[in-house]
Amino acid sequence: MKQKAQAKPASADESQWSQDEVDALGQIRLSNWPEAPPLEWFQRTGAQQARLTLPFAAPATVLTPLLEDSLLRRYDWSLRCDIRKLPNSQPDLPMIYGNVVLVASGKGGVGKSSVTAQLAVALARFGANVGVLDADLYGPSMPTMFGQPEQKLVFNEQQKMIPHHRAGVHVSSLGYLSDAKDAAIWRGPMASAALQQLMRDTKWPSLDYLLVDLPPGTGDIQLTFAQKLPITGAVIVTTPQTIALADAYKGITMFRKVGVPITGLIENMSGYTCPQCGHHEDLFGHSGGAEAAAAENVPLLGQWPLDRGLRECLDAGQVDAILANSSVLSTTIENSAARLSAQLYLQAQDRV
Ligand SMILES: Nc1ncnc2c1ncn2[C@@H]1O[C@H](COP(=O)(O)OP(=O)(O)OP(=O)(O)O)[C@@H](O)[C@H]1O
To answer: Which keywords fit this entry according to its UniProt record (predicted)?
Structure first.
């Protein structure tokens, strides 16, 4: 991206940067952005005020390099996220879902639903409008994680389902429909049709991001979903374990075949540190996901440890409890969400 210099002498009007400030802004590097940010992302909004406007969701900590710069820290900086709707795999369909991100795993039980829920809450905490479509028809777990397992969806007059709103996230799930128990016996085309219908027949509010928790595997259901719906990117979740990695590779290959960009990979259950004695154990191996990401040239969005608190909160329906308190795990999750949104935007630049 080109830097459009908008410099004036130091005493010029309050909407302009001085040449020294332009030079300083050119040296700034934002977390999760690989190059010098375009100058138009920085605005002066008053004598002492300045703003960073990003086209993707980000936490306030993204301002840190500006607050630490010897020249630029004289401004009172604020952050605005003006989240762009990015090109997707179905340019002919209306852009009604925001940026749709498939969360997939080749193997079951690696924490795909947990990761989806935590990323969604983190993006919502950054100020984005976020939806989750729980398409995991063999084990829809969002109703439990979001704490509303018994609450059914309400239909509006147009027979559209109104998603539940919890922890800042709009959630639709087969688990909220009364016949959800039947879902486990759906196969092939019937399952694909049901999932597409769930996505289309939910009355989503205006969304910036819609995260889709896919069923595990790389079969017809996942393929049809990727081909028929407007997808912006995909996240692969795996453990570092060899058998999970083999399936993660299959997922990467599948999405590449149908032209869905892989936005990143999350290595989950990446080691356990005993909170009592501090002993660390790599229960499922060490850094297998990170190595797979490097081998496939896929961005590594994070390595999340096994954490008893995370499991307990999700089982208890307290999906936002981990992110509500500052901890190593909450920072790890926030970093992954910030990397995901920045990476989605960066990838889309290659397609415009
Ligand atoms: N990092 C973690 N630390 C501790 N527990 C975790 C972690 N990630 C997931 N879990 C737990 O592991 C179990 C499986 O997680 P989850 O349901 O998210 O996996 P999944 O890949 O979506 O499974 P499925 O194949 O059924 O779709 C859950 O009980 C969840 O709370």
So the answer is: ATP-binding, Hydrolase, Iron, Iron-sulfur, Metal-binding, Nucleotide-binding
